[in-house]
Design goal:
The chain contains 11 helices and 3 strands; from the N terminus they run ααααααααααβββα. By secondary structure, it is mostly helical. The chain has 2 domains: 143 residues, Ribonuclease III domain (Ribonuclease iii, N-terminal Endonuclease Domain, Chain A); 75 residues, Double Stranded RNA Binding Domain, CATH 3.30.160. A 3-stranded antiparallel beta sheet has the order 1-2-3. The chain is flat and about 65 Å long. The termini are far apart. The relative contact order is 0.10.
Length: 225
């Protein structure tokens, strides 16, 4: 594969190709590159997590991986690389470049770029490129703060520990919603926001932090016995 057309293909969204069929004829397929880039990313991140966290079980490793390769983090890295300034997309999508759509397009382009680097320089170079830009995220505390679905994470924790779902209660006020979530008896935390869902996410994140600290202390006490 020729180098320049490969990178051009990685940054050319199918919507742009549909508008400019003749100009993009012969380019490698964006979706195929994205598919390969996604697989390359997961393989490298899984290996790095496996090596960095030798005490983590399969469930914890899976959770860390799902957060670190989430759209939230990938789109952050894509914006750091300024992919939004070089991404070829259709005129209609460019006009409607909302945040949720922007994050999806940038994430897809970044994964396609990983595939292009792989074909151009090989596995070792793309691994070094990925780890360079993801290095700051290999911190469990940071990752759990960035967890895009803390309610799901909390549910997994409580089902595993107590075989019960967390319980949410709400107090609606003129300025917003206060959500309290409880699990395992007296363990409870609260979150406040103008939007009910956001208040639930804040409460869930807070309880996850509380439970992790308690579980850590229990584990230390168990080792001392």
């Amino acid at each position: 594969m020729k180098t320049l057309p490969l990178y051009r293909a990685a940054l050319t969204h199918p919507s742009f190709r549909n508008e400019n069929f003749r100009a993009t004829r012969g380019l490698e397929d964006f979706d195929r590159l994205e598919f390969l880039g996604d697989s390359i990313l997961n393989e490298i991140i899984c290996q790095e997590l496996f090596e960095k966290f030798p005490e983590a079980d399969e469930g914890m490793l899976s959770k860390l991986r799902s957060i670190i390769v989430s759209q939230k983090i990938l789109s952050r890295i894509a914006q750091t690389l300024k992919l939004q300034t070089v991404l070829f997309i259709s005129k209609s999508l460019r006009r409607d470049f909302k945040d949720f759509l922007k994050a999806k397009l940038l994430t897809d382009a970044l994964e396609a770029l990983f595939a292009a680097i792989y074909f151009d320089h090989g596995h070792d170079k793309v691994k070094a490129f990925i780890l360079k830009h993801f290095r700051g995220y290999f911190d469990p505390k940071l990752l759990f703060r960035l967890d895009p679905n803390p309610k799901s994470t909390l549910q997994e924790m409580t089902l595993k520990r107590w075989q019960k779902l967390p319980e949410y209660t709400h107090i609606f006020t003129p300025t917003g919603v206060k959500t309290t979530v409880s699990a395992g008896g007296k363990r409870k935390t609260s979150g406040f926001d103008k939007i009910k869902r956001e208040s639930e996410l804040k409460a869930a994140r807070a309880l996850i932090r509380l439970l992790r600290e308690q579980f850590k202390k229990e584990k230390k006490r168990g080792r001392k016995k």
